[in-house]
Amino acid sequence: KAGVTQTPRYLIKTRGQQVTLSCSPISGHRSVSWYQQTPGQGLQFLFEYFSETQRNKGNFPGRFSGRQFSNSRSEMNVSTLELGDSALYLCASSLGQPWGNTEAFFGQGTRLTVV
Amino acid sequence: EDQVTQSPEALRLQEGESSSLNCSYTVSGLRGLFWYRQDPGKGPEFLFTLYSAGEEKEKERLKATLTKKESFLHITAPKPEDSATYLCAVQAEINSGGSNYKLTFGKGTLLTVNP
To answer: Under DSSP, is residue A84 helix (H, G, I), strand (E, B) or coil?
Structure first.
Protein backbone atom coordinates (compact mmCIF):
# COMPACT_ATOMS: atom_id res chain seq x y z
CA LYS A 1 0.00 0.00 0.00
CA ALA A 2 1.56 3.27 -1.13
CA GLY A 3 2.23 5.87 1.53
CA VAL A 4 1.80 9.62 1.50
CA THR A 5 3.70 11.25 -1.35
CA GLN A 6 4.93 14.82 -1.21
CA THR A 7 6.54 16.70 -4.06
CA PRO A 8 8.97 18.22 -4.48
CA ARG A 9 11.30 17.01 -1.73
CA TYR A 10 13.44 20.15 -1.80
CA LEU A 11 12.85 23.73 -2.90
CA ILE A 12 14.91 26.88 -2.83
CA LYS A 13 13.03 30.13 -3.36
CA THR A 14 13.76 33.82 -3.10
CA ARG A 15 12.02 36.21 -0.73
CA GLY A 16 8.85 37.60 -2.24
CA GLN A 17 8.24 34.62 -4.51
CA GLN A 18 5.42 32.16 -4.08
CA VAL A 19 5.55 28.38 -3.89
CA THR A 20 3.15 25.47 -4.31
CA LEU A 21 3.65 22.13 -2.59
CA SER A 22 1.78 18.95 -3.43
CA CYS A 23 0.55 15.99 -1.39
CA SER A 24 -1.03 12.72 -2.50
CA PRO A 25 -2.64 10.90 0.44
CA ILE A 26 -2.90 7.18 1.04
CA SER A 27 -5.52 5.61 -1.20
CA GLY A 28 -8.91 5.77 0.49
CA HIS A 29 -7.93 8.56 2.88
CA ARG A 30 -10.02 11.68 2.47
CA SER A 31 -8.47 13.96 5.08
CA VAL A 32 -5.24 15.81 4.38
CA SER A 33 -3.53 18.01 6.97
CA TRP A 34 -0.51 20.25 6.58
CA TYR A 35 2.10 21.02 9.21
CA GLN A 36 5.14 23.27 9.38
CA GLN A 37 8.17 21.98 11.26
CA THR A 38 10.99 24.26 12.41
CA PRO A 39 13.71 23.66 14.99
CA GLY A 40 12.37 26.38 17.27
CA GLN A 41 8.61 25.81 17.06
CA GLY A 42 8.41 22.11 16.36
CA LEU A 43 5.44 20.80 14.39
CA GLN A 44 2.65 23.33 13.98
CA PHE A 45 -0.74 22.71 12.38
CA LEU A 46 -1.51 24.75 9.26
CA PHE A 47 -4.88 23.44 8.02
CA GLU A 48 -6.90 20.34 7.28
CA TYR A 49 -9.03 19.46 4.27
CA PHE A 50 -11.74 16.85 3.88
CA SER A 51 -13.79 16.30 0.74
CA GLU A 52 -12.40 19.48 -0.82
CA THR A 53 -13.43 21.61 2.18
CA GLN A 54 -11.18 23.23 4.75
CA ARG A 55 -12.36 21.96 8.15
CA ASN A 56 -9.69 23.37 10.44
CA LYS A 57 -7.15 26.14 10.27
CA GLY A 58 -4.16 26.93 12.46
CA ASN A 59 -2.75 30.30 13.45
CA PHE A 60 -0.85 31.18 10.31
CA PRO A 61 -1.16 34.33 8.18
CA GLY A 62 -3.31 34.43 5.08
CA ARG A 63 -0.19 34.00 2.91
CA PHE A 64 -0.57 30.31 3.64
CA SER A 65 -3.43 28.69 1.76
CA GLY A 66 -4.41 25.31 0.49
CA ARG A 67 -6.90 23.35 -1.48
CA GLN A 68 -7.98 19.79 -2.02
CA PHE A 69 -9.10 18.15 -5.24
CA SER A 70 -11.82 15.60 -5.85
CA ASN A 71 -9.24 12.77 -5.82
CA SER A 72 -8.16 13.92 -2.29
CA ARG A 73 -4.81 15.22 -3.51
CA SER A 74 -3.94 18.50 -1.85
CA GLU A 75 -1.79 21.51 -2.58
CA MET A 76 -0.45 24.13 -0.25
CA ASN A 77 0.56 27.59 -1.42
CA VAL A 78 2.68 30.19 0.29
CA SER A 79 2.74 33.65 -1.26
CA THR A 80 5.20 36.48 -0.70
CA LEU A 81 7.77 34.21 0.89
CA GLU A 82 9.70 35.40 3.92
CA LEU A 83 12.97 34.07 5.33
CA GLY A 84 11.03 32.73 8.32
CA ASP A 85 9.02 30.44 6.06
CA SER A 86 12.05 28.20 5.66
CA ALA A 87 10.94 24.90 7.17
CA LEU A 88 10.03 21.30 6.57
CA TYR A 89 6.42 21.17 5.37
CA LEU A 90 4.68 17.93 6.19
CA CYS A 91 1.47 16.48 4.89
CA ALA A 92 -0.53 13.90 6.83
CA SER A 93 -3.38 11.76 5.59
CA SER A 94 -6.10 10.01 7.53
CA LEU A 95 -9.49 8.46 6.91
CA GLY A 96 -11.12 11.65 8.15
CA GLN A 97 -14.30 10.25 9.63
CA PRO A 98 -15.33 11.30 13.17
CA TRP A 99 -15.71 7.67 14.24
CA GLY A 100 -13.18 4.85 14.50
CA ASN A 101 -9.58 5.03 13.44
CA THR A 102 -8.09 8.52 13.42
CA GLU A 103 -4.41 7.76 12.88
CA ALA A 104 -2.55 10.23 10.68
CA PHE A 105 0.28 9.10 8.44
CA PHE A 106 2.92 11.55 7.30
CA GLY A 107 4.79 12.00 4.07
CA GLN A 108 8.54 12.62 3.87
CA GLY A 109 8.01 16.35 3.68
CA THR A 110 9.14 19.19 1.45
CA ARG A 111 12.19 21.08 2.65
CA LEU A 112 11.67 24.74 1.70
CA THR A 113 14.57 27.15 1.92
CA VAL A 114 13.91 30.85 1.38
CA VAL A 115 16.96 32.95 0.53
CA GLU B 1 -5.64 25.73 24.21
CA ASP B 2 -4.25 22.21 23.87
CA GLN B 3 -0.73 21.83 25.23
CA VAL B 4 1.80 19.01 25.09
CA THR B 5 5.08 18.93 27.01
CA GLN B 6 7.67 16.24 26.45
CA SER B 7 10.56 15.42 28.74
CA PRO B 8 13.44 15.08 28.70
CA GLU B 9 14.38 17.12 25.64
CA ALA B 10 17.30 14.78 25.01
CA LEU B 11 18.22 11.38 26.39
CA ARG B 12 21.41 9.43 25.88
CA LEU B 13 21.38 5.72 26.72
CA GLN B 14 23.78 2.83 26.44
CA GLU B 15 22.60 -0.11 24.39
CA GLY B 16 20.46 -2.30 26.64
CA GLU B 17 19.76 0.47 29.17
CA SER B 18 15.98 0.74 29.53
CA SER B 19 14.27 4.08 30.16
CA SER B 20 11.05 6.05 29.70
CA LEU B 21 10.02 9.18 27.85
CA ASN B 22 7.28 11.38 29.25
CA CYS B 23 4.48 13.29 27.54
CA SER B 24 2.19 15.43 29.68
CA TYR B 25 -0.82 17.05 28.09
CA THR B 26 -3.69 19.46 28.58
CA VAL B 27 -6.60 19.06 26.21
CA SER B 28 -10.30 19.73 26.41
CA GLY B 29 -11.57 16.21 25.87
CA LEU B 30 -8.96 13.77 24.61
CA ARG B 31 -9.85 11.96 21.41
CA GLY B 32 -6.48 10.28 21.00
CA LEU B 33 -2.82 10.47 21.97
CA PHE B 34 -0.29 9.56 19.30
CA TRP B 35 3.36 8.61 19.40
CA TYR B 36 5.58 9.07 16.37
CA ARG B 37 9.22 8.43 15.63
CA GLN B 38 11.10 10.85 13.39
CA ASP B 39 14.49 10.31 11.81
CA PRO B 40 16.52 13.31 10.60
CA GLY B 41 15.18 14.79 7.37
CA LYS B 42 12.19 12.46 7.24
CA GLY B 43 8.54 12.65 8.09
CA PRO B 44 7.19 11.29 11.41
CA GLU B 45 6.53 7.55 11.41
CA PHE B 46 3.39 6.43 13.23
CA LEU B 47 3.97 4.21 16.27
CA PHE B 48 0.90 4.10 18.53
CA THR B 49 -2.51 5.57 19.24
CA LEU B 50 -3.93 5.51 22.77
CA TYR B 51 -7.55 6.45 23.32
CA SER B 52 -8.31 6.06 27.02
CA ALA B 53 -6.60 6.11 30.41
CA GLY B 54 -5.19 2.72 31.35
CA GLU B 55 -4.62 1.68 27.77
CA GLU B 56 -1.25 0.15 26.82
CA LYS B 57 0.25 -0.77 23.46
CA GLU B 58 3.47 -2.54 22.58
CA LYS B 59 5.64 -2.85 19.52
CA GLU B 60 8.98 -4.61 19.69
CA ARG B 61 11.03 -2.79 22.35
CA LEU B 62 8.49 0.03 22.78
CA LYS B 63 5.53 0.19 25.11
CA ALA B 64 3.19 3.16 25.40
CA THR B 65 0.92 3.83 28.34
CA LEU B 66 -1.70 6.49 29.04
CA THR B 67 -3.10 8.16 32.15
CA LYS B 68 -5.52 11.08 32.38
CA LYS B 69 -2.66 13.60 32.37
CA GLU B 70 0.32 11.96 30.72
CA SER B 71 1.69 9.21 28.57
CA PHE B 72 4.92 7.27 28.83
CA LEU B 73 6.92 5.60 26.11
CA HIS B 74 8.96 2.84 27.71
CA ILE B 75 11.99 1.59 25.79
CA THR B 76 13.26 -1.80 26.88
CA ALA B 77 16.84 -2.85 26.09
CA PRO B 78 17.24 -0.22 23.33
CA LYS B 79 19.49 -0.69 20.33
CA PRO B 80 21.39 1.98 18.36
CA GLU B 81 18.74 1.79 15.62
CA ASP B 82 16.19 3.13 18.12
CA SER B 83 18.00 6.47 18.02
CA ALA B 84 15.54 9.09 16.75
CA THR B 85 13.31 11.92 17.90
CA TYR B 86 10.13 10.65 19.52
CA LEU B 87 7.11 12.90 19.17
CA CYS B 88 3.90 12.89 21.15
CA ALA B 89 0.71 14.51 19.86
CA VAL B 90 -2.85 14.89 21.11
CA GLN B 91 -6.12 15.23 19.28
CA ALA B 92 -9.10 16.84 20.98
CA GLU B 93 -12.60 15.45 20.77
CA ILE B 94 -14.09 15.49 17.32
CA ASN B 95 -17.32 17.42 17.11
CA SER B 96 -20.44 16.20 15.39
CA GLY B 97 -19.39 17.93 12.19
CA GLY B 98 -16.38 15.64 11.95
CA SER B 99 -13.87 18.44 12.30
CA ASN B 100 -11.04 19.06 14.76
CA TYR B 101 -8.77 16.71 12.84
CA LYS B 102 -5.67 18.48 14.02
CA LEU B 103 -2.78 17.22 16.10
CA THR B 104 -1.01 19.31 18.73
CA PHE B 105 2.57 18.14 19.03
CA GLY B 106 5.15 18.33 21.75
CA LYS B 107 8.69 19.42 20.89
CA GLY B 108 9.94 15.84 21.03
CA THR B 109 12.62 13.85 22.85
CA LEU B 110 15.86 13.23 20.99
CA LEU B 111 16.97 9.73 21.92
CA THR B 112 20.53 8.58 21.28
CA VAL B 113 21.48 4.98 21.97
CA ASN B 114 25.18 4.31 22.05
CA PRO B 115 26.56 0.85 21.18
So the answer is: helix
A23-71: per-residue pLDDT in tens?
Answer: 999 999 999 999 999 998 999 999 999 999 998 899 999 999 999 999 9
Which stretches of chain A sit within 8 Å of chain B by CB? 4, 6, 31, 33, 35, 42-45, 48, 50, 55-56, 58, 88, 90, 92, 94, 96-98, 101-109, 111
Whether residue A28 contacts residue A87, with contact meaning beta carbons closer than 8 Å, is answered with: no
Side-chain-side CA neighbours of residue A54 (13 Å): 13
The percent of residues above 70 in pLDDT, for chain B, comes to: 96
Q: How many residues does chain B have?
A: 115
Q: What angle do CA B94, B100, B103 make, to 5 degrees?
A: 110
